[in-house]
């Protein structure tokens, strides 16, 4: 059992249980994402110009969601292994800063992809 000077106790069995739970949840999510990506891939095979733009936006959204869930699992695993409250607070601060940076970049990329999809769809409808 680990104890810090502030009396913060987490039994070793509890840490192991939490670590296994995070691993099991990550595996379930990875399986779900694999099935989702396979379904998206099947839809892509029959996509038109309009669908191609939407597919790109959808793929980005799925990728971003996967990245955020992956980061959350990593954060959870780090929290489980934290030795004290100070470490937990530092991990939380680092996680939030990283997520905000990622969200900003992803919002820009998502906006660019969505704009391109709309422009491509407009061009395709003008040709008809």
From TrEMBL:
It holds the Pfam family Phasin_2. InterPro entries: Phasin (IPR018968), Phasin_subfam-2 (IPR010234). Residues 106-128 are annotated as: Disordered. Transmembrane segments: none annotated. Residues 31-126 form the Phasin domain. It comes from the Bacteria. NCBIfam families: phasin_2 (TIGR01985). This is Phasin.
């Amino acid at each position: 059992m680990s104890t810090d000077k502030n009396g913060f106790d987490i039994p070793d069995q509890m840490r192991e249980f939490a670590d296994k739970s995070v691993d099991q949840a990550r595996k379930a999510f990875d399986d779900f994402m694999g099935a989702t990506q396979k379904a998206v891939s099947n839809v892509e095979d029959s996509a038109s110009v309009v669908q191609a733009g939407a597919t790109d936006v959808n793929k980005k959204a799925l990728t971003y969601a996967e990245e955020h869930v992956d980061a959350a699992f990593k954060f959870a695993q780090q929290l489980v292994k934290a030795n004290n409250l100070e470490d937990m607070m530092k991990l939380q601060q680092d996680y939030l800063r990283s997520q905000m940076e990622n969200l900003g970049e992803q919002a820009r990329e998502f906006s660019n992809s969505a704009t391109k999809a709309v422009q491509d769809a407009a061009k395709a409808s003008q040709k008809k």
